[in-house]
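Forwarding these from the shared drive since the link keeps breaking.
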Amino acid sequence: MNSGKQMRQIWSKVSDMRMERKLLLVFLLLVTLPLTFIGAVSYRNYSHSIEQNTIDYSTNMLSNMMDRVDDYIEDMVRISTIPAYQDDIRQNLNRSNRYYEQRAQSSAGGEGSSMPADLDLLLSIQRGIGGNISYINTIKRGANSVYIFDQYGNGYYSAKSGTRANIKESYGLWEQKLRNTTGEAVLFSTQKYTSNMKSIQYAFTVVRKIIDISLKDVGLIAVDANISVIEDQVLKLDNVTHGKSFIVDTEGNVVYDSGKKLLATNIADQPMLQHASGDKGSFYLDEDGERHLYIFSTSSQNGWKMIISIPVKELTRDSVVIRNVTWIATFLTIGIALLISVFFSFALTKPLRTMIRLMRRVQGGDFNVKFQVRRRDEIGQLGSQFNQMILQIDQLIADIYVMETKKKEAELHALQSQINPHFMYNTLESIRMAAELNDDRDAANMLAILGRLLRYSISDLHEEVTLASELSHVRYYVELLNYRYRGRFELVIDVAQPLMDYSIIKLVLQPIVENAIYHGLDDNKPLMHINIKGEYAGSQVIVRISDDGVGMSLETLERLNADLSGQTGAEIIPARKSTGSSTGGIGLANVNERIRLHYGSGFGIKVFSEPGAGTVVELLLPREEED
């Protein structure tokens, strides 16, 4: 409701604007709206195209990168199978197992009976296994550390950039994971460790049991891969997308993180990982108050997910430049259009302003003005009509002066003619007094009633009276007729007392009763009943006047109601039996027209009738509060 009212107020203000301002507004809208629409659509389409191309390009790069990571891990898995095929490694591991088994048994035999260390044997085992580990390290770039352990956790390793300082702790974790395996490789996510050179390192590891030809476990091998083998490729992708990359394993542990803030941590509960469901796809998330586009792809071999987070503002950087250029061009175009619009609006409205000045002079009484017509366009035609109108007004003023003079003369004659009705009323009163003096009661009563009817009728027809006064006038009229026809008519009035004070224009009931008597009287009936009933019906007042006369045919009734609703202006005389008298009053059409003129076109008269069953005339009037 409030918004509708505000819109109407705004439209009213726009409608009241001067013509040149309306033209300026129209010109600006015609220029601004198309340019704004084109700019907005271009920016939207360009931004969407960039985002879609970025998604497609990044998804393709992610898939290729995950394929390379899978290939690298596959190479690590193959490297981990080498000890199973190297007799030298298996034999040395068996030697190490037997040696430490003997030492364990010796230690269990009692205090002081421990077998002394055989340094030559240990050195021989170390050289035999260490040489093979050095060979394994040269096979694949990035496998910076290879660890081989016997069944007792004794490690033999060779590292390019240092070994784990917590090698015993790492062995315990690996050995626990491999207990229920039968020789297959197990991939461990990125772990953080401190090297023996006191530096922090991150690596993911492939571990498997070493099984000899008799299918007996003789130890295990762990191949560490530094995250640098992933970092080089991811940095290239980040430079292109201006985003950050993550690699996460199936348990939510971070294998790689561009910012290296989440490395070796679990992010399974973060929204980023929860939205990355399926093999690949993209989605949007808000991060630190900034919207990001996330693109992900899943490895088909190990289930690792690689996710790229790209700020949307980086995606739309080029489109923002285009948007700004578009807006600058739009504002420049609007500025130029505004200057042109100002010139044309004032040029087009100058003749109208001239005509307004001339109209003001005419309003002040000066009719000696003339609009100079220079063109044949609409304004020129308007000026010609203006000049013609001024001439006609001048002529009409002269005619009105003559008519007013004649009107005053007619009013004098009308004042004189008003003496006649009063003279007739006074004369009837004198006759009535003479009849009473001569003891002629009927004549005196008839004259008295006729005098009341005449007094009621001679006043203004547009004057409003109460419904009670109208009903009293009808009673006098029927009473006077009963003197003439000796009790031929019976009048019954059924109107509630509150409705008696209802205001109504004069002489609307008596003409209808007169019409019923003079056109509906049935000679075969000794007594004619006339009923008047009034009632409230919602926001309306309905007065029904019914008789038991001859009625009328359906064709006559339809024509009568059509004429009443159309208001042709002619008096309606229903085709019913006539007594030979005239209409005896103002007539149905006159009453209907007066009601419609006074109360509105929604009110008036409607007639209902059947042959031989009488007629009902229904007056529809407004309630007093809606009058």
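-- next protein --
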Amino acid sequence: MISVDQLVVSFGGFDLFKGVSFLVAPKDRIGLTGKNGAGKSTLLKILAGKQLPSEGTVSSPKDTRVGYLPQHMVVDNTKTVFDETKTAFDEILSLKAEIDHLNHEIATREDYESDSYMQLINRVTDLNDRYLMVGGTNMEGEIEQTLKGLGFERKDFTRQTSEFSGGWRMRIELAKILLRKPDVFLLDEPTNHLDIESIQWLEDFLANYNGAVVLVSHDRAFLDNVTNRTIEISLGKIYDYKANYTRYLELRKEHRETQLAAYRNQQKLIEETEQFIERFRYKATKAVQVQSRTKMLEKLDRIEVDDEDNSRLNIKFPPAIRSGTIVAECKHLSKSYGDLEVLNDIDLIIERGEKVAFVGKNGEGKTTLARVILGELEHTGELKIGHNVKVGYFAQNQAQKLDENLTVLETIDQIAVGDIRTRIRDILGAFMFSGEDVDKKVKVLSGGERMRLAMIKLMLEPVNFLVLDEPTNHLDIRSKEMLKNALADYDGTVLVVSHDREFLDGLVNCVYEFKHKKVKQHLGGIYDFLQKKKLESLKELEQKTKPGANNAAKTVVAAPAADDNKLSYEERKEINKQISRLEKSVEQSENDIARIEDEIATMDQQMANPEMLNDASIFEKYDQLKQELEKVMEQWTEYTEEYEGLLKQKTW
């Protein structure tokens, strides 16, 4: 579908890509990963035709439709939400306009027997068929379904797009791309402006979509749930695996270990051979052997070990000064913007050392309450900040507030005081700004690099209560893990506004859900909260589908009790059959896994022998076994999940 051949991208003598080649096939679900600045967004722009490479080609069939969502875009503010989204159907709308025009012409003509009249009838028929084929009759239903899935309510449809924040306008652009149903989706951080529910909706949409998907995301759970192939960009090269992100990490580690083992064995062989040649070079009796081994070295296909980008964020928050037991307390707190009430009668307590998350749909007041706690917004009701509480704030737009004309070094030098001034370069190095990077202007930094710079500014403040509003947007996966670990080790209090499930998992022990102007506390982690939410939504669904409370309805429901019992028996019988079948499948898969792992272990021993490295077939067989093991593991996972799901249903 899209072919990339020997792609080279250079910036001022620096090669971002060095001869990269790969193919995007129909139904591929590709996740582009790599550290900030590796070139993920640049590669998407090239695939979308928005940027030309320095060398190489990107080609695709002429009729290939591409839907590209960049991280930042200029959006139109002159229409309502519904009308702006409707522009995604330009082809359908133009068809409809032409059909209406021709129908009007047919209605006003009377030359029913003429050739031109018949041509007109045929043209309208063809256009109607086309209109039905491209989904013209269901256009408004699709718009409504997509907008609601992305978090809009029906009352929002008639509002002007100018009334919405940048994040919500990005959702409108995403809705337009989804509705155009391109052959290839190119999505750059599509989850950055989505709440958890909208992310889950988008996951389902993309997972079931019939075209190809290439996306950049730092949301590990989103990548795992959507992608089936991972391309990592590192040091100008790519590493391509047919696996989701988590499985890719395992395969990449195995590949590197195998590569290193083969490299060490070959280096040992080369060293021993060179020693033999040097030792017997001038002995006539060994001349033939020396010549043979010299030729062998010349023909030897040298194994190269892939360079590995080990740069990583090294964050450690300074010790927090001790605060009072109660860090922040709200009583009957409310907040309105004019006539728009956002929060109503909120009660909330955050205690020292707690790590809490604010979650919920965008626009429900999460950031508003965070800013109220910071003292930035007026409100009604009572807000109490505890004794000796020093607050540090990291906002979504913190990176945009940096002075673009300053260098990285100048930005930190302006705020550093005391002994910190002597360690500025060390601090910058810990945040992956080393060497010439510190002299870069802020305006040339990537989104992730700006976020890291803003994070340094936060860390230089002596605080004991961190309020972080979407801190992971634009951070790569490794940097997010480092930030998460640093926050977990931090001995102060943390409040995080975030939609990133993987980031919150294992970090927070209390979740506050924002919904309908209220806040509800959920003790436990983020996945405990999500599991409860699913159970609650199922209960609501059951309540909605129950018949009315009138006597007639009760009689109808109660009548077929005997049939229900019989059906229940048949269902039990079928479930038992499936459980038995799956038990055998799981057992067979486990036997196959054990067999393949034994074969791989045997080959590992063989590959440790330097003499075996000259046999190319051993590496081919080794790779085949690895691929076979991966397939069997996937089957075992599917069988196990299905088996466990049926066991949960079996309550008798």
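The first helix runs from residue 40 to 47. Residues 544-569 have pLDDT under 50 and may be disordered.

- D.
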